[in-house]
Write a structure and sequence with these properties.
Layout lengths: L8 E4 L5 H12 L3 E6 L3 H13 L4 E5 L5 H15 L4 E4 L15 H24 L5 E7 L11 H21 L5 E7 L14 H7 L8 H12 L10 E4 L6
């Protein structure tokens, strides 16, 4: 039986760990050849690539700093050079640096703006330029884009909300080519960035209807669906995968 993503080429930014690594593995399991980007954690990126290859898949790891627009553009070009084209873009790379709006130190905002917003837009624009008709663009956003919940999240929420707006606009621009553009509004997911046993875990669990953290694989499953032919009539959507936190 033909796999849903057989012969497709995917790029997952920030694919060395967490949601990105789970997504890379799931896309590969469904037949795609996968390129993952990493900033500094080469050993973890190599581990993901090795895991995919050990199961008969195709994968490569490419270094790129998401905060540097030109490196993101070159990343897309390198995927096309290595695999011949790009069918699926998953914008997963992102950072979170809390801080209230009255702080004098704006470095956290600047870093989040560069990685969570500028870097994502650079990837979308470059991918749209080289992607064949019928491609898929999926960005990992956050439920915090719609509801900041607690103090210190304004900068992060703003970058994610901006990407959701860009997703809707890009869906309109690329619709005539059959390229779908969607975003995932994630809830509390058990990753290195937000450990389910961390100091604020109980508070986050209380926000959810299901009473637990999500697993990276649960986000990856939704991303893989959006990348598949079955999701061909879904575009411009912000899909919450948050355990009912927004219910």
């Amino acid at each position: 039986m033909t796999l849903p993503l057989f012969n497709k080429i995917a790029l997952v930014t920030g694919g060395s760990r967490g949601i990105g690594a789970a997504t890379a593995r799931e896309l590969a399991a469904q037949g795609a050849a996968v390129a993952i980007s990493y900033s500094a954690s080469r050993p973890k990126a190599d581990e993901v690539v090795h895991d995919i290859k050990s199961k008969g898949g195709r994968a490569i790891a490419l270094q790129a700093d998401q905060a540097v627009e030109q490196e993101v553009i070159q990343l897309v070009a390198e995927v096309v050079q290595q695999f011949g084209r790009l069918d699926i873009l998953v914008n997963n790379a992102g950072v979170f640096e809390p801080g209230t709006v009255d702080t004098a130190d704006t470095s956290g905002f600047t870093r989040q703006y560069q990685i969570n917003y500028i870097g994502v837009i650079a990837a979308i624009r470059e991918a749209a330029r080289v992607m064949p008709d019928g491609g898929r663009i999926i960005s990992v956003s956050s439920g915090l884009a719609a509801r900041a919940s607690v103090p210190g999240f304004a900068d992060y929420a703003a970058t994610k909300r901006a990407i959701e707006g860009y997703t809707k606009g890009a869906a309109r621009d690329l619709g005539p080519r059959g390229i779908t553009v969607n975003a995932i509004g994630t809830g509390s997911i058990d990753t290195d960035m937000n450990d389910a046993s961390g100091p604020f875990a109980e508070t986050q669990i209380a926000w959810t209807a299901l009473g637990r953290f999500g697993r990276p694989e649960e986000i990856a499953a939704v991303i893989a669906f959006l990348a598949s032919p079955a999701a061909s009539f879904i575009t411009g959507a912000i899909i919450p995968v948050d355990g009912g936190a927004g219910a």
